[in-house]
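Hi support team,

I've been running sequence recovery on a batch of backbones for a student project. Most finish fine, but this one hangs at about 90% for roughly twenty minutes before it completes. I'm not sure whether the input is malformed or the queue is just slow. I've pasted the structure tokens below so you can try to reproduce it. Let me know if you need the job ID as well.

Thanks,
M.K.
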């Protein structure tokens, strides 16, 4: 990381207080650690408009948009709203997307989770200047699932995505249609972010010294670009497509009434065997596909999607203590406090439609030939964060340096080792991998990690092993931490499939 960029990240920082040598996070929920302030009314949720191919244009520009009733903010968006439109495509389709840059700085879009040709992946070296355009040619070769897109500009991914340069990308196919899942008004794509607002309503993004190491955390939830949203629902089952698009926050998703969530899919699409869970941990970049049943909630009552606080360590200092201090998480790692993300108000009684199970014809998560290939080798990637520097295997990102070369068609085991005091959600471009083992820390594969994934959370002291198959396209791609502050500060590398 160059000195000028480091100074920009540091801002006017002072050192953060420490607990057992680990700095507290600036991770305030709407229920802890904040100074008294007027309770803000919740705003109606908006679903982003849907765009479909085969050809369309996304124009990235600064706009003044309404983020709550009577509240406007300046956003950077590739659409007309506070975030980008939802792109929808079918497997086998081919999209031609033009990105026009009307922002005051370089930008580029990455299609997170999709396997695309090198020229369409959004590598930061391809970023376009103000007034330029970039044409993407994207064959849809992936299975039905919830993907997303966001800025990947060099050193500017965090701030651009924070300001609105992000949106959902939904792929559908015939297999998914057999599941007869809730659709139409009962399917809700939800892009979750957290932000800080200045007194004048501007988005505040200026990581100071300890936030360069830990991450940048907002004190107010946004869903689909709307501040403190609420949504009216009926007494039936809804499908929630959940995307953690925060800059750094790990979400522990649950329902406020303690009801369970029916987990039916993750990063790479639907699971063969759905599972009922009480909560789901999603790090930045990860997705979950869940069903929520409102049939037993009386009309007029509310249930909220919340991010629960992580438990404090035994004997630890788990209380929220104001800005610059946060709540210690599992294993003594600070993760942030409680936050009410989206309130569901039950407005109408209807005859509920129950969803029972996948169809008998549901295919396995990975074709048998993929799961039985013997790995050619194991590669180890060590994630370090110390002395104001983030690195992989001891080196910070350099645009033109090639770190790893992989023969096309190879199956490999990649082992991610977290040697730092901070969580790292590891994202690999161009693949959907299988998590095969977690050593240390939580010591197991989590329910939401059972299907194909492109991002996996590696907590301090953990080693996570994944099976990766490089059989889609040749070219140069990226692997990095998806805590966007870490990514912007150098925790990224190039790999090439040859």
């Amino acid at each position: 990381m160059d000195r000028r960029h480091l100074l920009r990240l540091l801002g006017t920082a002072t050192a953060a207080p420490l607990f057992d040598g680990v700095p507290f996070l600036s991770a305030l929920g709407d229920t802890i650690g904040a100074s008294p302030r007027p309770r803000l009314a919740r705003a109606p949720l908006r679903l982003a408009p849907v765009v479909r191919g085969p050809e369309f244009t996304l124009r990235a520009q600064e706009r003044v948009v309404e983020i709550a009733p009577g509240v406007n903010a300046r956003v950077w968006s590739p659409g007309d709203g506070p975030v980008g439109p939802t792109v929808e495509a079918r497997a086998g389709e081919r999209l031609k997307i033009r990105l026009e840059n009307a922002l005051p700085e370089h930008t580029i879009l990455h299609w997170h989770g999709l396997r695309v040709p090198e020229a369409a992946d959004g590598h930061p070296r391809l970023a376009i200047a103000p007034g330029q355009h970039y044409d993407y040619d994207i064959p849809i070769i992936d299975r039905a699932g919830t993907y997303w897109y966001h800025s990947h500009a060099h050193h500017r991914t965090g701030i651009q995505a924070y300001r609105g340069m992000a949106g959902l990308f939904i792929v559908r196919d015939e297999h998914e249609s057999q599941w007869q899942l809730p659709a139409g008004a009962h399917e809700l794509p939800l892009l979750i972010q957290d932000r800080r607002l200045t007194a004048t309503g501007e988005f505040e993004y200026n990581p100071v010294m300890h936030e360069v190491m830990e991450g940048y955390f907002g004190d107010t939830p946004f869903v689909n670009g709307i501040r403190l949203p609420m949504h009216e629902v009926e007494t039936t089952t809804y499908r929630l497509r959940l995307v953690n698009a925060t800059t750094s926050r790990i979400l522990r998703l649950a329902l406020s009434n303690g009801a369970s969530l029916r987990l039916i899919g993750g990063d790479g699409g639907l699971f063969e065997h759905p599972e009922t869970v009480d909560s789901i941990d999603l790090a930045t970049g990860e997705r979950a596909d869940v069903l929520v049943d409102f049939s037993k909630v009386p009309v007029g009552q509310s249930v909220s999607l919340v991010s629960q606080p992580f438990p404090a360590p035994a004997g630890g200092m788990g209380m929220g203590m104001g800005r610059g201090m946060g709540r210690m998480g599992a294993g003594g790692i600070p993760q942030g406090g409680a936050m009410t993300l989206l309130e569901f108000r039950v407005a109408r009684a209807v005859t509920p439609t129950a969803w029972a199970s996948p169809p008998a014809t549901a295919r396995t998560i990975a074709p048998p030939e993929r799961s039985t290939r013997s790995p050619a080798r194991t590669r180890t990637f060590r994630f370090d964060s110390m002395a104001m520097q983030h690195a992989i295997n001891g080196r910070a990102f350099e645009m033109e340096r090639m770190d790893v070369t992989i023969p096309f068609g190879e199956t490999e085991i990649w082992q991610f080792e977290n040697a730092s005091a901070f969580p790292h959600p590891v994202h690999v471009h161009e693949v959907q991998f299988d998590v095969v083992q977690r050593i240390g820390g939580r010591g197991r594969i989590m329910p939401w990690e059972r299907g194909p994934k492109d991002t996996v959370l590696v907590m301090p002291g953990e080693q996570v092993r994944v099976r990766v198959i490089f059989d889609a396209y040749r070219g140069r791609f990226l692997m990095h931490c998806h805590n966007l502050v870490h990514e912007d500060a150098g925790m990224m590398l190039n790999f090439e499939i040859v």
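--
Follow-up from support: It reproduced on our side and the slowdown came from queue contention, not your input. The first strand starts at residue 18 and ends at 19. No action needed from you.
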